[in-house]
Amino acid sequence: MTTSRVAVLGSCVTRDVWNHAGPPDSHPMLFIGRTSLASLTLPDEAASQLAPLISRLPDLPGFAARSIRAELAKDALDQIAAIRPSVLVIDFIDERFDLLDAQGVLLNESLELIESGLPATVALAAARRVARLSQQAWQLWERGLLRLRQAWDQQPALAGCRILLHASYWAEDIVTGDRRERLPDTCEILLGRLTSRAAHNALLRRYHECFQQVFPEATVITPPAALRVADAAHRWGPAPFHFIDPYYHAFASAAAAAGVALWDQQVTA
Q1: Tell me, what's the pLDDT at 265?
Q2: If you write DSSP's letter for every residue of the chain in order, what string do you get?
Q3: Which Pfam families match (predicted)?
């Protein structure tokens, strides 16, 4: 088994597999996050009216800049195809944010997008917010999933690429030192915006089921629920999707068992 050429389209819950379970300085070939399947692509023959905003981006860390540029240009799939990955890992943890509808062009309203200042520009100031847990957001996501399927099938560079669905959910418990306790159902996604963990986990189940119907060839990896525990000492801070180290090791082991070596040390004779 050779080391896989891995791209990640998802969130830090997948990127952190390299940080917490991989060797020092290991990383996927490409990581694009803070997007939604609803906003990832555009309908056929549509053009993003928001791409010019890229020139107005302030200096941002690499991940934030890369993700926001891809969200504005709608070129994430082109970036993935350009590196010809052997494996694409997808997760839907970043599908927790509301959507912004700017005259038919959708954006995932992530913290990085808000902190970029772009929502205050003329192009986005009148954008309509679509609540993530609404039926409309679900319908927009379904349409985006079907566009992804079509675009995937039309991209020759992705013909041999495997898909791993990292079916992750929000944690029920959190560990602080030696103490483990239950998380409240009410969580703050962004400052002042409260939501329900249970509702988001139910939505994630729908996402996973629907994705598997449209991409039946995908290999699904769901780390054990017993390891789905939030870590108060996590490098990114406490959150229901910032897990204890064994969670990331379990994902890496499951990927290796499925024939996907995420780094050299996983390669076996």
Answers
A1: 63
A2: -PBP-EEEEE-HHHHHHHHHHSPTT---SEEEES--HHHHS--TT---TTGGGGGGPPP--HHHHHHHHHHHHT-HHHHHHHT--SEEEE--TTTTSPEEEETTEEEE--HHHHHTTGGGSHHHHTPEEE-TTSHHHHHHHHHHHHHHHHHHHT-GGGTT-EEEEE-----SEEEETTEEEEPPSEEEEETTEEEEHHHHHHHHHHHHHHHHHH-TTPEEE---GGG-EEETT-TT-S-TT-B-HHHHHHHHHHHHHTT-BSSGGG---
A3: DUF6270
Let me know: does 63 contact 4? Beta carbons within 8 Å.
no
pLDDT for position 269: 31
Tell me which residues of the chain have a pLDDT lower than 70. 1, 45-47, 265-269
Confidence at residue 2, expressed as pLDDT on a 0 to 100 scale: 75
* Structure token pair of residue 143: 């349409």
Nearest 10 degrees: Cα torsion 30, 79, 145, 45: 170
Spell out the domain ranges in the chain. 6-266
Amino acid of residue 165: L
Q: Is the dihedral of CA 147, 148, 152, 157 positive or negative?
A: positive
Q: Does domain 6-266 have CATH number 3.40.190?
A: no
